[in-house]
Design a protein that fits this description.
The complex is a heterodimer. In chain A, the strands form 7 sheets. A two-stranded antiparallel sheet of chain A has the order 1-6. In chain A, strands 2-3 form a two-stranded antiparallel sheet. Chain A is 34% helix and 10% strand. The longest helix of chain A is centred in the C-terminal third of the chain and has 22 residues. By secondary structure, chain A is α+β, with helices and mostly antiparallel strands. Classes of the chains: A alpha+beta, B mainly alpha. Strand 7 of chain A pairs parallel with strand 1 of chain B. The structure holds protoporphyrin IX containing FE and iron/sulfur cluster (SF4) (2 copies).
């Protein structure tokens, strides 16, 4: 997350490919939000309000949405859903009346391009909300103060939001997590949403969706979107027409910050329920546990037995995701406490720590002493905040990652600048349980990683296994990517 | 006239409904949707959709019950108190549905966002439903006790239609309001496949109660069809 520059290249490439259609204008399958911030849709992380995700109730796993009577609640609320966000929680899509700039009759004033709603076509009094409204902390006391991740922070820490010189912020790029225990799938009364057996991509069958919209409410990340114009829900499809042929998905491919990595993970599907029930403190560890070591001969044998192709096994062995999440333990899921077992992992941001350490110590950062580990407590982005966001509140998981990143930095600095001292750098590494070789691997992947190292995506050779005519297999630009083959069906017919 | 309305039209409209539904489901499944507009407006919808659906679905079930167990209904009604309870409940549900429907219509007429997603079919559906509910309530209030004479007139007529020997005399002498109610119901049935009304011809949601939470599909030929995650 340190390296995300908040440029929104990912969002824009996604939008250009998939959601530049009527009814989808407001959708950002990929969005980047400034944290702390209210997010998109507003306060999506607040499950008191939206009731997204799962809870453990009486020893069994249950959708939060089904509080009370259970699945019957879905049928009782099918006519009107109390927890559904509305367009006002996202923003009313708009364009500007540019033609007026050309066509306005001569007059005393400059002609203006007034905003016009893309829903009603009417002029809008003012634009009250837009994509990424509170970008870079714009209006932070108003917006960011509502960030649900701020709970448990001390007053002085919260105050940082309003003090310019103490301000901290970073970016959170988000797509659908293609969860192992997806709440969207589990909530759909039509059974329209499914996880693909082969690659785990979660898709909505457009022909079966009946616009009941439970997925929108149930997904704690608010990643399925309701297309108000044609009455179907849609979501990120992980650019499957690209990944099936071994290409990186649009957002990852476009990333200027080179912060994105895509790789295969093997996991034990029989243990999903058990892992999803793990208490908060152990959730991240349990998620690391369910991911299997692709170099373990028993795992390889089992994979072959399950009919997994050889190129997938090789890809899993070279998977950057496996290394970052499980082997090096520096990446972690976003809000694991929602218990959907999300499959996007984030490396918590570190940079401002050093900066703050310098400021606090009133001088240059003393690289000889090991003070830097202590200074994590004083870091500018409170560990508590990161833990609320990335590890279900378990600060140790975050601290482990931050310390490792810091140790790798020291070690690399020693190699290149040589002002740390070999023994100090090595000591820093061993304090966090890394070998110099591992440190080099981390450095190589996250700083120098080539395209082939960052995106290890095996082809699925769909042409050999599909029951669909290969010519009809891949959708064109500007569709929902799956289901309807008819381009013209972008709005109501009946 | 009556022969056309209640002897011929039922077949035309029923066929339209059946053939139309099959045609739309096979050629145009993508458009089969409840076309929810809650995303654009959810305050008035609450006062419309809940009363409307709870009211109308119970009443419809009552009508269907009458069709299948007419004798039990008459038997139930033989005790005056039980008759009053049944009639009053039905009437209350009718008003509930009417209230909801009026809220829905008001919302369609006044909210500009909802207007943007309203098709001609929606308007037609709302008009037909309004006529249906108003004439239904009219029947209940003006001609007592509907649950008894419904069983004696419309039910045998419906059976005669279903048995392909339409007996128009059974309904020919009913009051105008009642006849409107019956014919409008036929229009309603004919309209089902060609409007958002298709949304209640759904089987899937009932399956939801018994299926496991998670759904996994494979595109590999001969891949495992069983769900790999089975908790409910
Ligand atoms: C299986 C039972 C039914 C289900 C699950 C169901 C569900 C729904 C849903 C989800 C909506 C969309 C509400 C929204 O805008 O969010 C809707 C709208 C509507 N339903 Fe139903 N419905 C059922 C039965 C019926 C029946 C029996 C009728 C009529 C006889 C009916 C008439 C309508 C009408 C007219 C609307 C449009 C309301 C508007 O103008 O926005 N529904 N229904
Ligand atoms: S993040 Fe994606 S897979 Fe997970 S619950 Fe939401 S929509 Fe479903
Ligand atoms: S994820 Fe990459 S492309 Fe997206 S905003 Fe961050 S740096 Fe830019």
């Amino acid at each position: 997350m340190d390296k995300c520059i908040g440029c929104h290249t990912c969002s824009v490439s996604c939008k250009n490919v998939w959601t530049s259609r009527r009814g989808a204008e407001y959708m950002w399958w990929n969005n980047v939000e400034t944290k702390p911030g209210a997010g998109y849709p507003l306060t999506w992380e607040d499950q008191e309000r939206y009731r997204g995700g799962w809870e453990v109730s009486g020893g069994s796993l249950r959708l939060k949405l089904l509080k009370g009577p259970g699945k019957i609640r879905t049928l009782a609320n099918i006519f009107f859903q109390p927890n559904l966000p509305t367009i006002d929680d996202y923003y009313e899509p708009f364009t500007y009346d540019y033609q007026n700039l050309f066509n306005a009759p001569a007059g005393d004033d400059q002609p203006t391009a007034r905003p016009r709603s893309l829903i009603t076509g009417e002029f809008m009094e003012k634009i009250a909300l837009g994509p990424n409204w509170d970008d870079d902390m714009g209006g932070s006391p108003l917006y960011a103060a509502n960030d649900p991740n701020l709970k448990g922070l001390s007053e002085s820490q919260k105050e940082m939001l309003t003090k310019f010189h103490k301000l901290f912020f970073f970016y959170l790029p988000r797509i659908c997590n293609h969860c192992l225990n997806p709440a969207c799938v589990a909530s759909c009364p039509s059974g329209a949403i499914y996880k693909r057996g082969e690659d785990g991509i979660v898709l909505i069958d457009q022909d079966t969706c009946r616009a009941w919209r439970f997925c929108v409410s149930a997904c704690p990340y608010k990643k399925p979107y309701y297309n108000w114009a044609n009455g179907k829900s849609e979501k990120c499809i992980f650019c499957y027409p690209r990944t099936e042929t071994g290409q990186a998905n649009a957002c990852a491919h476009a990333c200027t910050g080179r912060i994105r990595f895509v790789g295969v993970l093997f996991y034990d599907a029989d243990r999903i329920e058990e892992v999803a029930k793990t208490p908060d403190e152990r959730l991240v560890d349990a998620m690391r546990d369910i991911v299997l070591d692709p170099n373990d001969p028993r795992v390889i044998e089992e994979a072959r037995k399950q009919g997994i192709d050889e190129n997938w096994i090789v890809a899993a062995q070279n998977s950057p995701s496996y290394n970052l999440f499980k082997k090096w333990r520096i990446a972690m899921p976003n809000h694991p406490e929602f218990r959907t077992l999300p499959m996007n992992f984030y490396v918590p941001p570190l940079s401002p720590v050093l900066h703050n350490a310098k400021a606090e110590n009133g001088g240059t950062f003393d690289s000889e002493s090991m003070e830097f580990f202590n200074s994590i407590d004083k870091m500018r982005i409170p560990v508590r905040y990161l833990a609320n966001m990335l590890s279900a509140g378990n600060e140790q998981v975050v601290i482990e990652s931050l310390k490792k990143q810091m140790a790798v930095r020291l070690w690399v600095r020693q190699q290149r600048v040589g002002d740390i001292g070999d023994s100090a750098a090595k000591a820093a590494l061993s304090a966090v349980g890394l070998t110099p070789e591992e440190a080099f691997e981390i450095y190589k992947l996250v700083s120098l990683g080539t395209f082939q190292e960052r995106f290890v995506i095996p082809e699925t050779h769909r042409e050999t296994m599909t029951t669909v005519d290969p010519r009809l297999m891949y959708e064109k630009r500007g569709t929902v990517g799956f289901g309807s083959k008819k381009q013209e069906l972008v709005s109501r017919q009946w | 006239m009556d022969n056309v309305l209640f002897g011929v039209m039922p077949y035309i409209l029923l066929m339209t409904a059946i053939v139309g539904a099959i045609w739309r489901f096979r050629s145009n499944k993508y458009t089969w949707s409840s076309q929810s507009s809650q995303f654009l407006e959810n305050k008035t919808l609450f006062f419309g959709s809940f009363p409307w659906h709870y009211g109308i679905i119970t009443i419809l079930l009552g009508h269907i019950l009458g069709l299948f167990i007419p004798k039990s209904i008459v038997l139930w009604n033989s005790v005056p108190l039980r008759l009053y309870v049944l009639e009053l409940t039905a009437l209350a549900l009718g008003f509930l549905a009417l209230f909801g429907l009026l809220a829905l219509i008001y919302r369609r007429l006044t909210n500009s966002r909802v207007k943007a997603v309203t098709s001609g079919w929606d308007v037609l559906v709302l008009i037909i439903l309004l006529i249906q509910v108003v004439t239904g309530i009219g029947n209940a209030i003006l001609y007592r006790w509907g649950s008894n004479w419904y069983v004696a007139t419309a039910v045998p007529w419906m059976w005669s239609v279903l048995k392909l020997q339409p007996n128009v005399d059974l309904v020919a002498n009913l009051p105008l309001i009642t006849k409107t109610h019956i014919f409008n119901a036929l229009l309603f049935i004919g309209l089902i496949p060609f409007s958002r009304l298709a949304h209640f011809v759904v089987i899937n949601p009932y399956k939801y109660l018994v299926r496991p939470y998670q759904v996994v599909r494979w595109y590999r030929k001969g891949g495992p069809t069983v769900n790999i995650v089975s908790y409910k």
